[in-house]
Design brief:
The complex is a heterodimer of chains A (190) and B (295). Chain A has a single domain, classed as Four Helix Bundle (Hemerythrin (Met), subunit A) (Up-down Bundle). The longest helix of chain A has 24 residues. In chain A, α2 runs antiparallel to α3, α2 packs antiparallel against α9 and α3 packs antiparallel against α6. In chain A, 64% of the residues lie in helices and 0% in strands. Chain B is mostly helical and 295 residues long. Chain B is 41% helix and 3% strand. Chain B has twelve helices and three strands, in the order αααββααβααααααα. The radius of gyration of chain B is 21 Å and the shape is globular. The relative contact order of chain B is 0.13. The chains are: A mainly alpha (190), B mainly alpha (295).
Chain lengths: 190, 295
């Protein structure tokens, strides 16, 4: 009993200290944490529609995509001023030492989110397929190379118009892969 | 005093003899591949699942795919994934299919020297002869690129390759597990991918001081990845606690989205982007089925 109480107390403490990291953030660090959280919530709202677990609602997808686009690009970059790392921030120093790449990914996110907003009316293709990319990788003599065009090579190759013609789930995956491309490089995993 | 010198000389002699013996200790087994017809499309699929393309390419560098990956900084030194295009000098163009098979499944270079386990060959031992032939055929379709990747920069004493033979003896895996007829096909396929080609355990299993995966810590997570990264535990209990179910996990291997709406980071984004996102949906579902059910 005592043991169980102790463990519950410890778990509570661990939870409280996790929450503390965010509640302790101030100023621009808090602003960007809130912005990231809002984008995560928008992703969470529409993900079940993209994975086929919930009925599709184009208006909800448009709204979520707009919310994300509004926090991406310049709006995101300006929440990472020079010298705002360290402390409770999860931003890695690379945000500033490799600023060009960080800013490019922030722009990519805005392009992908605006593309998703347009693609919302197309509806899903089913279970998150990237049918175009798939056949590209598997196709003929370019078998090994087709796929290299995906992911963070999106830059320059894809526009809002292109993405807007994709099935909504393909556009969604393209967008969320930009999120994690940036997390890979610029976020500390705590 | 004199006795001390004799002792030092004897020790030095012993080390020299042991080092010489280690250098001469033969490793590996001969390979005989029948004249198999390789299917380049299937091979390209395996190359993606196995991370060949992800690790041996550096999209940020502007260099063509497969001409060498981004360096991996570890406690042992700096490893640079080499050019594996079919260029005879800079890549693997001068290799035979037998060289290729030995490199992948046994971790031995064409000149007989052992590879560092930064190359996850211990996970590729379960590839069949047909898998090898398909991969080989796929690599032949890649344009040869005359760009040698930078060499490794490994710290002493890890730069002495014969020492890797000891590592192999201590940490090399046993023969790959046979399919379990009591389980579903999806579970068996998932196990083959997770513990083999997709080499999830290369990051998600903790390693000891010498870079050997700790027995008993299979997929239990690691907080000591190169560059200080962390990989969460993938055990059924840990996955359940973090809110994963089969559907969410399979979809995350395509999208990178976690149950709470956050997305992967720490290198897993790249694994998804260049690897698992390209798999067939049934293979992603198989990975999820195996991970959530466990052994």
């Amino acid at each position: 009993m005592i043991y169980r109480t102790m463990m519950a107390g410890l778990a509570g403490l661990a939870f409280a200290s996790g929450a503390w990291a965010h509640s302790d953030a101030m100023g621009v660090v808090k602003e960007r944490m809130d912005a990231m959280k809002a984008m995560g919530e928008a992703v969470k709202r529409i993900k079940p529609m993209m994975s086929g677990e919930a009925g599709y609602d184009a208006d909800a997808v448009r709204a979520a995509a707009r919310a994300i686009a509004g926090e991406a690009g310049a709006a995101m970059v300006e929440k990472f001023p020079e010298g705002s790392g360290g402390g409770v921030s999860e931003a890695l120093p690379a945000v500033w030492s490799d600023a060009a790449r960080f800013e490019a990914l922030a722009r990519d996110l805005e392009i992908a989110a605006r593309g998703l907003e347009r693609a919302a009316g197309n509806g899903p293709h089913g279970a998150g397929h990237m049918s175009g990319g798939m056949s590209g990788m598997m196709g003929g003599s370019s078998g090994m190379m087709g796929g290299m065009m995906g992911g963070d090579h999106m830059r320059g190759a894809m526009s809002v118009e292109h993405i807007g013609q994709m099935p909504a789930d393909g556009a969604f995956v393209m967008m969320t892969q930009v999120c994690s491309a940036c997390h890979d490089r610029f976020r500390e995993e705590k | 005093m004199r006795r001390g010198i004799v002792l030092v000389l004897a020790l030095a002699g012993g080390v020299a003899v042991a080092g010489g013996a280690l250098a001469l200790w033969p490793i590996g087994a001969p390979v005989a591949l029948d004249a198999l017809d390789g299917d380049a499309q299937r091979g390209a699929y395996l190359a993606r699942a196995g991370g060949c393309i992800a690790c041996h390419s550096d999209p940020g560098s502007g260099r063509p795919a497969l001409t060498g990956g981004a360096a991996i900084e570890t406690g042992f030194g700096r490893f640079v994934p080499p050019n594996i295009t079919p260029h005879p000098g800079a890549g693997i163009g001068a290799w035979s299919i037998e060289d290729f098979a030995r490199a992948l499944r046994q971790g031995i270079a064409p000149d007989g020297s052992p590879y560092y386990p930064a190359f996850p060959y211990p996970f590729y031992g379960g590839l069949s002869d047909q898998d090898i032939a398909d991969l080989w055929a796929a690599f032949q379709t890649v344009p040869a690129q005359d760009m040698a990747a930078e060499g490794h920069a490994i710290r002493f004493p890890f730069n002495l390759r014969p020492g890797l033979k000891l590592w192999r003896a201590a940490y090399a895996d046993g023969p790959p597990a046979q399919p379990d007829p009591e389980r579903t096909d999806a579970w068996n396929r998932g196990r083959w991918l997770v513990n083999g080609l997709a080499h999830c355990g290369a990051c998600h299993t903790d390693r000891n001081m010498l870079g050997g995966r700790k027995p008993g810590r299979h997929l239990a997570g690691s907080d000591d990845l190169p560059g200080g990264g962390r990989a969460p535990a993938l055990t059924p209990a840990a996955l359940g606690q973090a809110g994963w179910d089969a559907h969410a996990l399979a979809f995350a291997l395509k999208s990178g989205v976690k149950p709470d709406g956050d997305t992967f980071g720490g290198g897993m984004g790249e694994v998804v982007r260049h690897g698992t996102a390209w798999l067939r949906p049934d293979d992603r579902a198989a990975i999820a089925a195996y991970l959530l059910e466990g052994e």
